[in-house]
Each structure stands twice: as C-alpha cells, then as structure tokens.
Amino acid sequence: MTQFSVLDLVPVREGGTLGEAFEASVALAKTAERLGCTRFWIAEHHAMEGIAGGATSVVLAHIGNATKTIRIGSGGIMLPNHTPFQIAEQFGTLDALFPGRIDLGLGRAPGAEPELQRALRKNLHQASEYFPQDVVELRALLTGDVDLAIKATPGFGANIDLWMLGSSLFGAQLAAKLGMPYAFAAHFAPDHLDEALNAYRRSFEPSEALDKPYVAVAMNVFAAESAPAAETMASSQQQAFVALRTGSPGKLKPPVEGYADTLPTPQRAMLDHLGQAAAVGTPETVRQQIAAFADRTQTDEIILCGSTFDPDDRIRSLELTIEACRARVNA
Question: Where are the transmembrane segments (predicted)?
Fold first, then answer.
C-alpha cells in the first residue's frame, strides 16, 4: 500500500506572523501523526518572506518536541549552502533528541542570487559542482564508512535516513549510484518525472542502507467538501507559484474565487502544467487523482504538499485526503 507523508514550507500569510506560521506547522504535523502519515518534512528556503523554514534544523526541533512518533526531516537541505560537517552536527543533534525519527533529504539546487551568496559567504555555483563529493563526505561523517581526520560530535554514529531529492536526471542517477532512497519534486517541476524514476530504478546499486529502490513523489493536494471550495482554497498556492515565476514572491495571499480564469494565457498554461502532479476537488475526486498518479509512477510513497491561507483548511484537506484514500483500501 502506498504510504503518505507531508512536506511543509512553513508558509507565512499576509497579515500573519512568523510565530503563527510555526504554530500552524506544529498543528499540521500533529494531524499528520494522528492520521498515521510516515514522515513530516520541512523545506529549506532563504530570503523569502512568505516561507519560514530557512533555519530548517531549528524548525525540526520545534516539530519534534510537539510530536512523538512521526519521522521528521528535511525536504530538503540544500547542501551547497552548507558544509557537510555543519549538517552532520545539526542532524546528529536532532537524532540524539528524537532517536530513530530523523530523515535528512539533500538537494543540490543552490540559491544563486548574488545577494544570497554574499550573505552565506559561499560561491554557490562552485559549491553545487562538489555536491556528489559532499554527499559522500556527509554520509561518512555519520557512518564512519570512510576514514576522516575529524569526527562530528554530535553526528558520528547517528541513526539517520539519508535521502536524495531532485527534479532532474542528475539527482536520480546519484541516488541510484549511492543506493539512497529518492524523492522527486513533481509538485513544482514535473517535466522529468517519468524519465528520472526510470533512470533511478534501472541504475540502482544496493547499499548498506537500502537493498532495493525506494521512491517518494511530491504532489499538490487540496481536498474539500465541494470542488469549488477546493479550487478556491488552492488559489493561494497558485498565486504563490505565479508570483515566484514572475519574480515577485511574497507572503501567502488570501484565496481568490476563479483565480486561474483571471490569468494571462502563459501563466494559466504554467498552472495547468503543474496540475499534472496535483489533485484538487472533493475527497473522492482527490482519491481518484492520487490513485492514478500513484499507478503512473509506481511510487512507494506520496508526499502531500500545498499551502493554504487558512491553516485549518490544510488540516481539513489532509484529513479528508487520508480518510478517503484509506476508506477505499479498506472497502
């Protein structure tokens, strides 16, 4: 049976505060745990006023303290922004605090803006070229499978599940080479989904951590009691996508009824394109769309994404989605 997990961007809504965003994430994580979801991930973004997950490991500690059993982790840490040693320490600390519950999803995409590079004191383009070596070094810092001159404390010996994240063939091939589970970000970059999953499964080499391929795919999901209500609820996320693609990201905006119909053709086409990895509608419609997507990808796990202006709407959407999918399985 397909597993379900949640990816949270810790959205900050217009008129809202950072504190409210963090507490909304806690409430969502508690709901995911109550519903039996496998894991709850936070994504690293920087210098975006509408996304509050930049200090990812700190946010995860907050989530970990509020939950008991659900796995928590990064979806993902952009490793070029850091050193492997720093991440080994941070996630080694998380493992010590919440043993057996920590995932470390790794991504290559750097924040390439000159201002961010200066703020991080990093040449992010150059750092991304060393990503494969940094992944191997990070794994060695945690497992000791390669002799290093220094040990991360915390970090060394931590029981952490390492994941490769990606939206292209590069991440798929690296995950296969290193024998890592692979998560594909179809929720915002669906173009290479089928090709990447095929490449990963075809080239997978077993490792001590994983003996066969394991895939998770992210998709945007919005469920409500009626289709119009779900479509309106999804419009806040749609506005965020349009704002990002047009170079004007900001805080999450209130929903707009019929929003997509107001857009110019190129922006409407962009949303339609992203819709191939989305499920929006009544619980039964969402269940059918998720089932078709799972059948297409043969994924082991669906990662549910999608920000809503009202945090309660996302909690209710998650409840309706999980209940509908599981009711069908148990029928």
Answer: none
Interhelix angle 169-178/131-143, rounded to 10 degrees, is 30
The whole-angstrom separation of Cα 242 and Cα 247 is 9
| Residue 308, domain member (yes or no) | no
The single-letter code of the amino acid at 237 is: Q
- State the CB neighbour count (10 A cutoff) for residue 144: 12
Alpha carbon 267 to its chain centroid, in Å, reads 24
For the chain, the distance separating the N- and C-terminal CA atoms, rounded to the nearest angstrom, is: 14
pLDDT tens for each residue of 242-268: 999 898 899 999 999 999 999 999 999
Query: CATH number for the domain including 195?
Result: 3.20.20.30
Residue 151 lies in a domain: yes
Beta-bridged to residue 215, according to DSSP, are 182
Residue at 166 is within a domain: yes
C-beta of residue 236 within 8 angstroms of C-beta of residue 309: yes
Give the contacts of 52 (CB within 8 A, at least 6 positions apart): 10, 11, 12, 18, 21, 22, 59
Domain housing 16: 3-216+314-330
Assigned domain for 286 exists = no
Q: Are 170 and 132 in contact (CB under 8 A)?
A: no
Average pLDDT, the chain: 94
Strands (E), the chain: 3-8, 39-42, 71-78, 102-107, 161-166, 182-184, 215-223, 278-281, 301-305
How many distinct structural domains can be found in the chain? 1
**In this predicted model, what pLDDT tens digit does every residue of 51-100 receive, in sequence order?**
999 999 999 999 999 999 999 999 999 999 999 999 999 999 999 999 99
DSSP E strands in 92-214: the ranges are 102-107, 161-166, 182-184
CA dihedral (313, 319, 322, 328) positive or negative: negative
- Within 219-309, residue ranges assigned H as helices are 227-245, 265-274, 283-297
Torsion sign, CA atoms 46, 55, 233, 231: positive
Token pair in block for residue 233: 């609820």
Q: Give the strand pairing for 102-107 and 182-184.
A: unpaired
Supply the pLDDT for residue 115.
Answer: 79
